[in-house]
Amino acid sequence: MTDLSPKIKSSVFWLASALTAIVLVLIVFFGIYYNNKKTGPILVPTPTSNIINVEGGELPENLPKDIVLEKDVRVLQSYYTKPFPYNKELTLYQIQSSFSFVSKKGLDENFTSYNEYLKDNGWQITGSIDKKDIKRLTAIRGPDRLSVSINISPLSKETTVGLFNIRVGLYSELNKAQVK
Q1: Do β-strands 74-81 and 92-103 pair in parallel, antiparallel, or remain unpaired?
Q2: Residue 45: phi, psi to the nearest 5?
Q3: What count of other Cβ atoms lies within 10 Å of the Cβ of residue 145?
Q4: Closest to 114 measured CA to CA, from 155, 75, 150
Q5: pLDDT higher at 164 or 47
């Protein structure tokens, strides 16, 4: 077998290096593409310009209206967002609603009450945490994903209840007035 000239060896080396680099780029590109297709919907952080505060202790829009609430509570927070993208294809939107208050009931009583409410009102409970100082329930019903968080405030030692809902829907079904 004859020896290849240094010029040919150099050309073969650069050609092999270029092909290896192209293959690596393709592997990385298709790996990222496949991984993104596998992960499905993305949750986009809430744009702060979309947040609408609700005054007077009223429930925010898109929080389920049949949710159990105590009377005459001190409201800590009440807001909702304008619709914004839920997935990267922009076919789905989400609206977030949040309502939190200081409860006159204890942790266990609130946990039992919300657990019973969810079961009795068509919610599918998807998660539950029942610890000494914090209780949490997560549930789905139709387009709503609700989280109920009950805890003891470390400073005031008061029981606080937070209701956080994400409503997901098709952009094509969204009332155009809501998108402004």
Answers
A1: antiparallel
A2: -55, 145
A3: 17
A4: 150
A5: 164
The span from the CA of 91 to the CA of 12, in Å, is 49
CA atoms within 13 A on the CB side of 2: 4
Q: What is the DSSP letter of 175?
A: -
Averaged pLDDT of the chain: 76
Determine the average pLDDT of the residues in 147-158: 89
Task: Provide φ and ψ at 116, rounded to 5°.
Answer: -65, -45
Q: Whole-model pTM?
A: 0.66
pLDDT at position 8 is: 65
What does 47-107 look like in DSSP terms, one character per residue? PGGGEEE--TTPPPTTS-TT----SS-EEEEEEEE--EESSTTS-EEEEEEEEEEEESS-H
CA distance 36 to 141: 27
d(CA 52, CA 78): 9
Q: Of how many residues is the chain composed? A: 180
Most confident region among 28-37, 73-82, 99-108 by mean pLDDT? 99-108
Phi (first) and psi of residue 129, to 5 degrees: -125, 125
Specify the 3-state DSSP secondary structure of 138. strand
Identify which has the larger pLDDT, 105 or 29: 105
